[in-house]
Amino acid sequence: MNRRDFLRTLLAGSACFGSGLVPRFARADLPPNDQRVLLNVFLRGGPDTRHLVAPPFDSTPGTYGYAYWSNRWRVHGIENDAAAWEARWQDDYFHVELDGVEFGVLKVADWLRDRIEAGHVALLNNVVGATSRDHSHAMVVWEAGDRTAMPGQLARDGWGGRLARAVDGHVVSMTPAVRQFCNGPHATDPLRHDNRDVVSLRDSRDFSLFRAPALASDPAAEDGQSIMSRALQSYYAGKAADVPEDSVYRPFVQHEQTLRALGELVDGRLAEVPLPSAIQALYEGDSTLESRSFGRQIRNTYDAFACSDLFDLRTGCLVYDGFDSHAAQRETIEPKFASLFGGSGGLATLQSELEAAMPSAWSNSVLLVAGEFGRQLKDNGDQGTDHGRGNTVLLIGEQVRSGVYGDLFPASEIPRYGEVGLDIEGETAIEHVFSRISDWLEPGAGSTVFGDVSAEPMEDGVSLANLLA
Length: 469
Hints:
CATH architecture of the largest domain: 3-Layer(aba) Sandwich
Helix content: 25-40%
Largest sheet: 9 strands, mixed
Shape: globular
Number of domains: 2
Structural class: alpha/beta
Low-confidence stretches: 1-6, 11-28
Order of helices and strands: HEHEHHEEHEHHEEHHHHHEHHHEEEEHH
Distance between the termini: 30 Å
Strand content: 5-15%
Number of helices: 17
Mean pLDDT: 92
Radius of gyration: 24 Å
């Protein structure tokens, strides 16, 4: 039985799972992680990537570097003075060149700079999803992977769920609640979803159903929770044999059996997989991250790879909140960029620990890092930036063909910096980006998930054909 069929058998709720016949893993061997995996890292709120990846300072009016720094000094928390602009550029940014384009990367994002210099980062520029600046609508568009999605369509499928179905695998949600990205397609209603291919891993180290201790060995076995647990387990085991397959109550029985069986397998596996102290430090004690929630998601991701054969992991979802930087942008988002992209941040720690324990897990994965939209070109009066449309999307991984895809600093933006309310113009539709990643995961998956995207907008001169190895 292959991995997919095994998990499908679990989801079918075979009666043996309530009878103690589930095999346990008694060894620490980890799966080879030989399948390609997409990790979707969603930056909720709309990240200002022009703050993360900035143009070189230029003292000459009419240049891009001058237009940027003379209209964004507030968000950098500096004086309106060319010497202050230059000092910020020199002191707080790594100076990088990629595909002949010079730019700066915030020094708090040193891991990202290292990945760029190692040739494992693609900067996908002027990418657009929703043309609305409304958070809710833009998130529906982005997570559905459909620029025609309408506001309020929160119950429809997501492109990660459709992709998992297309590649005959599963999408594992590392987040506190399952996001729309993970929703699978409904058989008959395009505005509903079917999550048979979703594994919710909100706490990988507390995944299984409660199991009562044996009466003879532990006094705690007689507490109320243990008594109720044994009663319910016996009840569902009995119902598994009695409830007809076509009964409306059958799914409840199947769900209990699936959770209990899969939970025991996951617990058995992770009991033999020590949690690296560097990952634990991301969310416990004096956490090294600005967000403990994101640290826990990094733990869930590490454990998902340790159990990748049990989950048939093909797609994963993480979320980092708090990128809506209308005010005090420097103080608001730079700690988040450090937590994401810093040398001791979440992604760097995940890479280091996966390479140590499961090398093929990292080498066969790509990370898509973006939010629902971008920010405006010119800063506002509160040292922040308001909602924009186009943005730069980051694709990171050893199988990514490094490069600058699309104009990072378009000359057409120079005069637009002087006008309030203008943003990065969307040139390349999200469907092109997502479809290409889907094809990398499995050839032909892009057309299955997105259909024919040839009519969708694409920036002149840009090709994503060689984006991934």
